[in-house]
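Subject: mismatched residue count in predicted assembly?

I count 410 residues in my input, but I want to confirm that the predicted structure covers every chain. Input:
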Amino acid sequence: MLRFALLVIVLIVPQQGAVQPSQTGAGNAVAEGPNYTANGELKMPERYREWIFLTSGVDMSYSPNAAMAGHSMFDNVFVNPSAHRAFLETGTWPDKTTLVLEIRGSEGASSINKRGHTQSPEIMGLEVHVKDAKLEGGWGFYEFDGPKSAKVIKRPAGCYECHEGHAAVDTTFVQFYPTLLGLAKSKGTLSAAYLKEMGAAAGSK
Amino acid sequence: MLRFALLVIVLIVPQQGAVQPSQTGAGNAVAEGPNYTANGELKMPERYREWIFLTSGVDMSYSPNAAMAGHSMFDNVFVNPSAHRAFLETGTWPDKTTLVLEIRGSEGASSINKRGHTQSPEIMGLEVHVKDAKLEGGWGFYEFDGPKSAKVIKRPAGCYECHEGHAAVDTTFVQFYPTLLGLAKSKGTLSAAYLKEMGAAAGSK
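Triage response: the counts match. Full output below for your records.
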């Protein structure tokens, strides 16, 4: 019986060692990747703000929303922690990678900040990019404007065309992720499209 | 003996349940808080990019470095996960809270981005703000410009004066952390200095 109890310890401990949502704040293994509703819609990853931050841009023009809105906005990008760890090892994304683009309002002078821009509490948009082998092309885009779940954006669509034609790694804009670009270079995972674009840009200087 | 073994389970499991560095990527419990060298210098938290992202600002004027450099920069702010969890519960920071300000270069048009600004791989500065009861005033600032450890900035200094005179919560600029400001309001932890400043700003409109 004691041996069984010890066996139980061995069996329990690795499970306890799995990601602890309440302690890491990063969601558990199930919550981390894409979760779908019964009818195949993607559920909004609720705790993406506790994921890994990749970058923040301001007033970038490749987002159709930002261009249309006509006022200043920030784009914050987050990725689920296990996909980030895989990228650090391989220079590319594993299946089930989930990237969240949070579009947030930008404020000018406020409180002690007298110039430049800071982020406001107002979220202007949420877009999610999921790598899932069951999707056509291996990746899907989803846009959330209020609802808790969203249908995949069907091809053809500008988002797929733009990411596939210009993104540095596996249809993702790693050229704007400052901690990952050098890693992708060293791992040799930069896309042919991106290398061609960079080569053309260098040649024109 | 079996009872003892079960007691061991109970004692072991909570420890195994502590943050798992290899699984969360967020550092372990020891690495999370401030770590000091034998001579009392603060060690740079090496994995702060896996901590909780609070905000990113661009070209803000309250950073003396940004004002002096004269070109565009982003300020990214991260906090250790356990301090973030405590803030979500209490609206303020626990002892050993560690906030990292990463100052990063800003690029204009590059690759497919035709306007606005994106973050560059170049880190222009790293500043750390630590809550530690053993420090005068309960908080210390540290500036890292290359070395792996830094001495606390001695009082009096502009950083202390500015944070104590204007910061929304416990000498930290929660007014610029979009996910935390509303929480601090609802918990009643906004500083008297900040409330007075906001009241004066509203009154002058």
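The domain at 33-153 of chain B is CATH 3.50.70.20 (Chalcone isomerase). Marking this ticket as 'not a bug'.
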